[in-house]
Structures are given as structure tokens and as C-alpha cells.
Design brief:
mainly beta, Immunoglobulin-like, 21 strands, 7% helix
Length: 334
């Protein structure tokens, strides 16, 4: 009988660990006044974003930088959004603003604005989420509106496709592991037409976000954007939610400096080690593989010259570890 009880307890705990989250308005929709802080990663190797059941998304070798992105959820009036009809509040990412409409059942985009471009989705809003969102969710919505860029006015049409195509296990940079994670993909395609179609701009953007059942905001987000036509640009980023327990300790910045950078044959490492922890320096290649290790002792002030004359030209990462604290800098080898 004791074995039966033990089996039931283990089974219950296992099911609770791997239970897939369902995104809901009450738990996951942002509200006015909230702040979402994210830490920026440098990609190392192939970005894991496969879809399907029981996936493993392993970002453990990716490098957390000291760069931070903060999203503030402010009022429409504070965001200067009087012209964006139906806007409930603004997701402000520094110079870029998303004007959002929150209804009882949906979360919609009604406008996007930055210093060089403004999109007013006033013909048909772009539905980002129709609550609830669970594994297998799929929503396609056509949108239209007006655009303004470089003193030109035009029209925009496009589609937003939101899906939840995957679930599984997520390992974030540093090795923290989360089970029962839901992958959500949001893909936007749009065409802006100016001067009666003489000038066009095409946008393709996709976000891969990873949620668990205990955090409101995504644990990790991978974003791509590609603009073609009269104006061209490409962008990609990986961001980890700063609210994940332990992530600040992992990304400890130990006044760690490397110079010169770019480096030709040597570079200097300088850092303050006020806790007299043992210091280790590692040089990693773009795949996250360790190719050099240097033990630098436990002095309060550490300053060492590191040779990289045997390395080929390219991008590397210099990782310093003080006890259980880690800090990373990118190094360019000429």
C-alpha cells in the first residue's frame, strides 16, 4: 500500500511539473504601470526554435550581456497616442511604441510608432492574442491602416498570424531549466504603399516567445525583422526575462574590462575582486566552445595580459568567473 501511495505522489508531482501553461487575459495580459525588464543575449551557434511536442530548446551556451531592454506600460495620453483609436495603453520600448487595445477577449495592436515611421492600424486592428492561448492555438487576422515615413503618407495592409506550435523544456543561458514551457510564435507581414504605389516597403517580422505557468511575461524571446523595398534593414535579438530567479546573480558584472578591443595579438583583462574569490578567464568561440582557460588567482585587483595570437580573426567571448558570479564581454580578434 505504501508503494501505491508513493507511486501516486510521484505521478502527481510529475504531471504538475510538465503541465503546459494556458495564457489568459487575467494572468498574462500586461496592465498599466507594469515594467518588464529583459537581458540581451549574444547568439552562439544555431538558435533553437523548433516546433512540436516535447521539444528541448537549449540556450545554455548563449551569452548574457550587460545590455538591458525595458518595456514600460504607460497611458495612451502619456505615449502621445491620441490618434490611435481604441488604444488602452502603450507598450513603450524606448523610442519604439506599440499602441495596444485590450478587450474582454482579445489583445490587439492599433498602432506602431518610432522616430522614422508611424503605422496607424485604423482600418482593421491586428489581433495579437484571442484569449485563451494553449498548445495548438492558431489565429490569423488581416489588418489595414495608414502609414507615415520620411514625410510621405501611404496605406498599409498585412496579416498577423499567432500560433502556439510547441511545448517542452527550455534551458536559458547559464543552465536554469524550465519544464512545461509553451512556445508562442507571432508572425507579421505587411506592405506599405506610398506615392500611389510608386514606393513600397515590405515588412516580415516574427517573434518566438517561451512561457511557463508561473511567470506573466515570456521567459525568453527570439525576434527577427526584415524590411525590403524602398528601405531595407535586418534585425535579430534574443532577450531573457530579468524576473527569472537567479538570473541577476548569474549575470554578475565584476567591473570587468578588456582592452584593446579589437585585439591583434594580446588583450588586457582588468577587474576588481573585492570578495577575494578565485578568478577564472575563459575564451569561447562563436559556437560557445571553450578554447582557452586562464586561472588568475584571487587578488583584490586583477590585471593580466592574455595572448590571442594563435586565434583566427573573428568574434569571441571572454568570460570571467569569480566564485559563482559570471560576467561576459565580446572580443573582436583582428
Amino acid at each position: 500500500m505504501k508503494r501505491l501511495y508513493l507511486f501516486i505522489i510521484v505521478l502527481t508531482l510529475s504531471l504538475s511539473v510538465v503541465a503546459q501553461p494556458t495564457l489568459t487575459k487575467s494572468f498574462n495580459q500586461p496592465i498599466l504601470g507594469e515594467v518588464n525588464t529583459k537581458l540581451i543575449c549574444d547568439s552562439v551557434g544555431v538558435v533553437p526554435k523548433s516546433s512540436g511536442v516535447n521539444q528541448l530548446w537549449d540556450f545554455s551556451n548563449f551569452i548574457l550581456t550587460s545590455n538591458v531592454e525595458t518595456s514600460n506600460y504607460i497611458s495612451t495620453s502619456a505615449g502621445g497616442g491620441a490618434s490611435y483609436t481604441g488604444s488602452s495603453f502603450v507598450e513603450s520600448y524606448g523610442s519604439t511604441k506599440f499602441f495596444m487595445k485590450a478587450t474582454a477577449t482579445q489583445y490587439e495592436i492599433v498602432g506602431i510608432e518610432n522616430p522614422s515611421f508611424a503605422l496607424n492600424i485604423n482600418g482593421n486592428t491586428a489581433i495579437q492574442f484571442a484569449w485563451p492561448v494553449a498548445m495548438g492555438y492558431s489565429k490569423t487576422d488581416a489588418f489595414s491602416g495608414t502609414a507615415h515615413a520620411n514625410n510621405l503618407n501611404g496605406n498599409v495592409t498585412g496579416n498577423i498570424v499567432s500560433t502556439a506550435p510547441g511545448n517542452g523544456t527550455l534551458i536559458i543561458p547559464g543552465g536554469n531549466t524550465f519544464y512545461g514551457v509553451l512556445q508562442v510564435r507571432i508572425r507579421i507581414t505587411a506592405t506599405a504603399s506610398f506615392l500611389l504605389g510608386v514606393t513600397t516597403v515590405n515588412l516580415k517580422a516574427v517573434d518566438y516567445t517561451y512561457y511557463d505557468a508561473t511567470h506573466k511575461f515570456p521567459l525568453l524571446t527570439v525576434s527577427y525583422a526584415d524590411v525590403t523595398g524602398a528601405y531595407t534593414s535586418k534585425a535579430a535579438s534574443i532577450r531573457v526575462h530579468d524576473g527569472i530567479v537567479g538570473i541577476n546573480d548569474l549575470n554578475f558584472d565584476a567591473t570587468f574590462n578588456i582592452f584593446p578591443n579589437p585585439a591583434k595579438d594580446n588583450f588586457n583583462v582588468s577587474l576588481n575582486n573585492i570578495i577575494n574569490a578565485h578568478c577564472t578567464i575563459e575564451i569561447l568561440n562563436s559556437l560557445g566552445q571553450t578554447i582557452q582557460v586562464h586561472q588568475l588567482g584571487n587578488d583584490k585587483q586583477i590585471s593580466n595580459n592574455i595572448s590571442v595570437s594563435n586565434l583566427t580573426s573573428g568574434v569571441y567571448f571572454v568570460k570571467t568567473t569569480l566564485g559563482d558570479k559570471v560576467s561576459v564581454r565580446k572580443l573582436i580578434k583582428e
